[in-house]
Structure formats: structure tokens, C-alpha cells
Amino acid sequence: MTTLSPDTRPNPPEVISNPAAASPTGTALPDGQAPRRAPRGYAPSLAGANFGVYLALLTPVLVSMAFKVQHLTSTDSEATSSLGIVLGVGALFALVANPLVGRLSDRTTSRWGMRRPWILGGALVGLGAFALIGAASSVWIVLVGWCLAQTAMNALLAAANATLPDQVPAASRGKVSGIIGITTPVGILAGSFLMNFVSGDFLRFVVPSLIATVLAVVFALRLKDRVLTEKPAQRFTVGQFFGSFVFDPRKHPDFGWTWLTKFLIFFGYAGVATYLPYYLQDDFGLSEDKAISTILVANVASMAGMMISSPLGGILSDRIGKRRPFVAAAGVVMVVGLVILAFAPNIGTLVLAEAVIGFGAGSFLSVDLALATEVLPNPDDTAKDLGVLNIANALPQSIAPAIAPALLAVGNAIGLGGYTFWYLTGAVVALAGAVLVYRIKGVQ
């Protein structure tokens, strides 16, 4: 029997005998005080878990799923509509899983902690789901596998990110959020890189998810998780189930405007990115292999922009004490990048556009989570409320593929070009998000 070394043995959990006595930040400390500093190694291991999730989920969204669906369909129009169905329905499962698991983890009384069981369970179920997708022989099996993968990986993500207010004081969350923000472009870049060296649909889905599983296990083992020793007094009712996905914007307007801003900017960033492989093939005449290598170059440029703006945005927002200007500026920069992308005459301009979008997205992702933790309505429902906010991440990935075929057709019908119209739509939506961030009054 294998035993864990002192460096890999799970950290002892924080025990909370009375959930109501926990501090507002979620950490059980004397006199309800917030933690003074994040636990040693917490930020890198949380970043690793986030990287794994984004590697496993965004590689299919941005690269491999389009080609998997294309291999199972006979025409371009069938591939486009089938991809929209798979990604759209799958994102709905993500929409449900994230806030629901967030709320359930707030109530979990496992001796392993509140968050750890969901992290480990999500990673293992996700690995099996990605294997199913890779081996699928029909679009319908892909759809089932993708729905399961979205559910599992978003459960992992909800539980993992709920540990941020558990473990980190508010004044330091911008820096930690900035580190986490980097994991999105790194995950995208790593996935694009892997796709150039991994052949076959099965390995294209299994290898990223296997990496995600390993990193999630490492984070879970290192996490000094909270433990509830008493079950919450209030039962988890049907009303609470549906309440996991809603909030009252009249009572919590800042939370509502934060949600809407996040949704609009994420539509411009993530929602419109799904069809880049088809854009490269249809408008630039690239083969599948050439499209994959071009996506890698584009993602390198995007990551370069993010690497500059993401840590800088988080650190500066902490130092200045302001969040909204960084979110607004990020949205405007992304709008510029999307407009360039819409009218790109060649691959070089397309790569430049991705760099500009990445620069804007880096600033947004670095500050977004820190801003969100400052407008949460209820400190006793931290994970649930963060899960509701994460709906704003998932919902654009459902709506965008669902409306894409219609918008592409409109663009072609008016003579502007399907993909040009598609990316301009994303620019307009992101601009609205940049403007509306100033409706948030409780955060500077």
C-alpha cells in the first residue's frame, strides 16, 4: 500500500463546528477575522487547477471539437449547425452545474472538507467524459459526452474558485485573481500547442483532460479545506435548488450589474471564438492542419498580450484601489481587436487582432474575480453566488453557438460576409459591457 509523503499528504482542514460562525470571507478564524494572508502554495496550486480545467474545456471549444464534428458530418452547413448544438447544449449544463455545485459545496459536511470532494469527483468524471467524446462515432454521442464533461469540469471549477474568499483576504484578491487570470490564456496556448503534436480525435480529448485531473488532485491534496462538522439547520429544498441560479437585482443591484457586465464582455471574448477554425478554412482557404498551426500562432499572440496586461491589471487595481476602470478599458480594447478580426485581409492581421483581444481580456480576467468577490450578496453563500456569476461565463458559450448559424446567414445575405458580421456582433456586445460597468456603485 502506498503512503503519502509529508509533502503530498492532504493538509488538515479548518474545522467549523457552527457554519454560521464562519467569518465573512469563509475562513474559520478567531473573532470572525478574515485571513491575514493566503496559505503558502495556495495561489500556484489553485492556478494549476484552473489551468487544467481551461486546458480540458477550451481546447475542444476553440480547436478540437470543430474538427471532431466535421469528421462526423458530411457537409459544411451540417458541421456548423451540429457544432452549435453540441456546444450550445453543453454550455447549458455548465450553466446549471456551476452555481448548483457551488451551493452544495457550501453545505457539504464531508470529513474531507467542503470543496475537496467536488474537486476530485469533477476531475475523475470529466476524464471519463472526454474519453467518451474522443471515441464517439456519432454527433449524438459527442453531445452526451460534452454535456457530462461540462457538468463535471464546472463542478470542479465552482468548488475550486470558491476557496478564494475562504483562503485569501480581500485586499490581496486582486493579485491572486491576476495569477488565476493568466491560466486562461496559458490553457488556450497549451491546448493549441498540444493539438499540433497529438493526432487522432481520442488523444486530442483525453490528453488535456488527463493533465487537468492530475493538477486537480494536486490542488485538492494541498488544500487546507474548511470542514463543517454540523449540517446546516435549513434543509436544501426545491426552492433553494432553483434559487441556486437566480438572485434579486433589486436588492443587490451591484451584483446584478456585475453579472451583466461579465456576460456581455464574455460574449465578445469567448462566445464568438468558437468558429475561428471554420473562419480560417472558409475565408482564408486553410487546410485542417494549417488551421491548427495558425490557431497556435494566434493564441501565442493572444497570450503575449494577456501576459502583459493580466498581472499588471491585478496588481495596479489592488494598489490604486479601483476595479471598474480596468474592466471598462479591457472591454474597449477587446472591441478594437474584434473589429480588426472582422475585417482582417490576411493571416498576419488576424494574428494582430488576437494579440489586441488578448491584451484586453488579460486585464479583464485579472480584475473580474476580485471585483466579483466585493459585491457578493451573502457571505454565507459565497460559492453559490460565485456560481451565479459564473453563469455569465457559461451562458455566452451557449447563446453564441445557438445564434451563430442565423447571424452568419444574415451577414452573407447583406453582403458583409458571415464571419465579418459575426465578429462585429461580438464587438458591439463587448462595448455594451464596458459601458455598463460604471453602473456598479459599490466598487470604485
From TrEMBL:
One of its GO terms (molecular function) is transmembrane transporter activity. Gene3D superfamilies: MFS general substrate transporter like domains. Its main location: membrane. It comes from the Bacteria. Residues 1-39 are annotated as: Disordered. The chain crosses the membrane at residues 46-67, 79-97, 118-137, 143-164, 176-196, 202-221, 259-280, 292-314, 326-344, 350-373, 394-414, 420-438. It is a multi-pass membrane protein. Residues 45-444 form the Major facilitator superfamily (MFS) profile domain. InterPro entries: MFS, MFS_dom, MFS_trans_sf. GO terms for cellular component: plasma membrane. Pfam families: MFS_1 (PF07690). Keywords: Membrane, Transmembrane, Transmembrane helix. This is MFS transporter.
